[in-house]
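User: I'm new to structure prediction. If I give you an amino acid sequence, what do you actually give back? Let's try with this one:
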Amino acid sequence: MLKKEVFGWTMYDFAETIFSALFVTVYFPLFVVLKGGNAFHVGLVMSVSMLLAGLTVPFLGAVADVTQRKKLLLIVSTLICCIFTFFTGFFTLIMVLLLGLLANLFYHASLDVYDSLLVNISNKKNRGWISGLGTATGYVGAIFAICAAYTIGRFYGYESISGIKVIFISTALLYLGFSLFTFVLIKEPAKTKINKQHLKIAFKRVIYTIRSIKKFKQVWLFLLASFLFVDGANTAIMFLYLYARDQIGLTLVQFFPMYILMAVAAGIGALVFGKLTDRLGHKKTLTFVLFLWTVIILMLYLKTNYTTFIIVGIMGGALLGAIWTITRPILISLAPKDKIAELLGYQGLTEKFSGVIGPFLFGAIAVAAGFRQALLVVIGLFLAGAVVLRFVKT
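Assistant: Good question. You get back a string of structure tokens that encode the predicted 3D arrangement of the chain. For your 394 residues, that looks like this:
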């Protein structure tokens, strides 16, 4: 294991979490509202982008397995995401929704290729720890992002059109800039040029995997569980700020320190659960995490005020770090070595497809019955994911 490459790998978590924190969680939903949209528009855009990502990532994963050009695919998808992010703030509502959709699409397309690089820099004994280290580094990136956003807001306005435009530009530049550590430090021994033959082989591999569902039964069961509980996590992230804004009247400036607390908790949770999952086992640890998620969201549903939001935010942050940390090594342990990137692509597919359901339902219920009632969607998804996970043999 090369320390230099581990550092390079974790820095992509730092970079991509800047996009997740500033674009997905805070400013894109707010910008849509300022442009005349609502929570349903946000949920619809995120759902469609996840659906499109889900259709493409298994094929990208298969191409990565066939050619071993994982880093090249990561560079291309990251660059395209940053271009769309850069220009999102310059247009009216319809174009904002379209560019936001495309930015989120290529962001999620990049994540599964990135996850597959974990195999290159780790082994069975330290995979959970390195995965947790990456997740924790990501939340350091989230704290950095919020500090940068606060500084920008002091000059351009925290909830103004012009201020958010600068945020989108900054997000694109920071995401791309910190990704350079990964692009430079991760070595890619293969210099194979991707051609039509590789694409045909990748397509055939995807079809074979789908037809051989019985052969990969445990993988597919885990992917179904992931479909459900990751949807709960993604939905919680997407509507975090809008929920606080609607239910307790939290301003963006008030939300910043709370988000930093959540990010610190997530980083600690990633490291703690990274160690825990290597010692106790991935399935047992993940089941415990999903149980705790259900309890804290139920707590918020029963009583939403400033205090409970902080408590749930901190605990949820730690558990969010745990989910991202445990999910990577558990699938790698179930997948054949020569199909890891492809099957991580299927994990991406299930997660993106799940992202179609949760945000859409949450946004629709929030508009029709209120944000508090929409929490029942998140609770249901975590419970369903825990039930399916019980049948997975690791």
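You can read the tokens as a compact description of the fold. Here is one thing that stands out. The chain has one domain: 3-389.
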